What we know:
By secondary structure, this protein is an alpha/beta fold. The chain has helices at residues 12-22, 34-41, 51-57, 68-76, 81-84, 99-111, 124-130, 141-152, 166-195, 199-207, 214-225, 234-251, 258-270, 282-289, and strands spanning 2-6, 26-30, 46-47, 60-63, 90-93, 115-118, 121-122, 134-138, 157-162. It has 2 domains: 2-164, Rossmann fold (3-Layer(aba) Sandwich); 169-289, N-(1-d-carboxylethyl)-l-norvaline Dehydrogenase, domain 2. Helix 1 packs parallel to helix 2. Nicotinamide-adenine-dinucleotide binds at residues 6-12, 30-33, 36, 51, 64-66, 70, 74, 95-96, 121-122, 124-125, 231-232, 236, 240.
Amino acid sequence: MKVGFIGVGNMGGPMCRNIIRNTNHEVVVFDLDAGAAKACTDLGASAGTSVADVAARCDVVITSLPIPRIVEAVALGPDGIAAHARAGTVFIDLSTNSPATAKRVAAGMAEKGIAMLEAPVSGGTVRAKDGTIVIMVGGDAAVFEQQLPLLKSFSAEVIHLGEIGFGSTAKLINNMLAFCNSAAAAEALMIGKRAGIDLRKLDAVIRNASGMSTGYANMANKALAGRFEATFALDLAHKDLRLALEMADELGVPGLIAPQVMSLMRMARGMGLGSADSCSMIRVYETALNEEVRA
Length: 295
Ligand code: NAD
């Protein structure tokens, strides 16, 4: 089978390379960043010249793109996948999107006889490299079963949530929770710093105690080391939380905690940290208190 992969950045790159390593599929990649595409062609993928070229050549087209507007343009735009793929092609979007966008894109694809799975992922770049991410899928059950071996080739867990929209719903809920944990971790570390406790020992306690979470571990790993280069950009985290808050509003669920985290992200972006890692949220506290959490 020919598999197209469009968007081989921080997440798409390692996922694409795992497909190349773990399957016999012929993989065709395209990314606006030539260096990102090269990291996949070096491993045996062939280079697509455009989105349209990949769409026309492949049986399955996968995308991992930053924001809903770009996903929609790549999927349904005049130079996009729906316009150039054959009927019968399967489109799998691994990006984090809103349920409404996923439904709109799926409807546009269906008009061209293209089935779509929305398949957002969680686990970050480390688990993307290890092939141990979780994939949460929305879409037709038969298409899901057919694509399961491909999805399993670059993940540890694949969960079918139901119809299109539920994959994004699960992903946005998960990320809202993770960002709340991460923001609370930033506050916790700052309190520890001010208290004068040995931060490495505090960290060892938390990792073995009830305060532990993936959000905590991510924040502590980056903040204690002072490493804020993006593996998951703040701009993308802000996009995810905005989509989660929109969903909560639409459903009439009053947000109390997540909007506070949104304010923290807005302040960090206002400080020019949008392209830094999402854990640079802690820089808001550090700047306000003129003290850094490093150990
Ligand atoms: P990224 O910015 O590192 O990668 C996106 C890639 O898409 C880039 O290489 C970019 O050049 C390419 N691109 C953008 N527009 C394009 C276009 N029109 N045509 C072709 N290529 C194009 O972002 P990422 O961190 O890999 O995130 C990708 C998606 O995965 C996002 O939706 C994000 O929310 C989600 N996600 C990220 C993480 C993470 O830890 N980084 C974890 C889970 C989910």
